[in-house]
Amino acid sequence: MRRILGIALAVLLIGGVIAVIAIGGRTAEGTATKTVRGVIGSEKSDFFRDPDVVKALADKGYTVKTETSGSWAMDQLALKEFDFAFPGSSEPAQGIEAAAGVKGAQTSKPFFSPLVVIARANVAKVLSDNGLARMTGKNSGTLLMGPYLKAAGEDRSWQQLSGSAAHAELTGTVFIRTTDPATSNSGALFIAAASNVANGNTVVADDAGIARTAPLMRKLISVQGALEQSTDDPFRAFISGSGEPLILAYESQVASLMLQKQAVGNAADMVVLYPDTTVNSPHTFVPITEAAKDLGALLVDDPKLRELAVRHGFRPQEGVAEFTAATAPHSGHLNPGLTGIRQVGAPTVEVLMALAARAKGQGDTP
Length: 366
Prior knowledge:
single chain, 6-stranded mixed sheet, 13 strands, 5-stranded mixed sheet
C-alpha cells in the first residue's frame, strides 16, 4: 500500500511540475514578453506612461521603457543603449539613423501633431484687435504669421499695441516662447515655418536664403533669453497660471487636456491659435535593434493603440476620422480639419540646423 501511495504521489508531483512548466511557458494575456528601451520626445511621455497604453503594449508582447530628449539632440546620445528612438518629426530621424548605424531602417510615422500658439483670452483679443491674429471662435483663431513676423522684426512692444494698457502683465517685446531650435523639434519647426514666410513663402534652400532670413530668426530667439529644451515645461507653466503670454505648443498637448477633461482652472480661458503657415510634425519611430523592429508598425496599425493616441491628442496617420470624431465636442478650441492653414515643407536638415545656429547667434555661415 505504501509503495502504491508513493508511486501515486510521485505521479502527482511530476504532473505538477509539468503543469508549472506549461503555464510558465505560455504568455498570459497582458503579460509582456519583450522589454525594449527607447528615447522619445517629452510630448509623448504621458502617452507611454498611460496605464492603458502599458497594458495594450503588454497584450502585444512589449514592455516599453522610455527616457526623454530633445528630438534634434537624440543623434548625440549613446544610441546603442536604446532599442528605438522616437523624435517629433522626420527630419531629425535622418541624423538618428546615421548616428545609430541603421541608415535605411524601416521607420514609421504613427501619428502627427501641428504646432499651435496658446494664449489667454485677453492676450488673443489684443493680437486680434491689432491685426496679428484672426479669431474664429471664442477660444480659437489663427496667428497671422506675416503681420506677427513684421511686428517681431520691428521689435514691437506690447505697450505699442492698442488695448494692452488694460492688462498689466503685457509688457516688453511681443514674442512667442519657443523651445531651443537647435535641439527641440517644436522650436526647429517654428523656425522652419517662420523662415518660409520671411523668404517670400518659399522653403529656404541655400546660403542666400539663410543670410536673408537669419536676422529675423535671431530676433525671434534672442528676445526669449534662456531657452527651454522641451515643450512640456512652458506648457505646464501656462496651465498653472504662470509663464509668458504666448506659448508655442503641440496641438496634441491641448487636445489631450480637452479629451481627458483636464481643461479647468487656469486653462478655462485658453485660446488656441494655429499659425497660418506651419510645418506638420509626423512623429517618426526609428527602430535601432531587432527587438523594436515591429513596434513602430504596431503603433500605426493597432486600433487600440490608435484610440489611445487620439486620447492623448495625437492625429493618427491611419485614423484621421477617429481624431475628428473624438475632438468634435472641442471644436471651440481646436481646428480638426486644419482649415485655412498653409502647410509647408521643412528645409533640409543642414539648412534648418544652420538657421537654428544663426538664430542663436552662433556663426555666420551654414
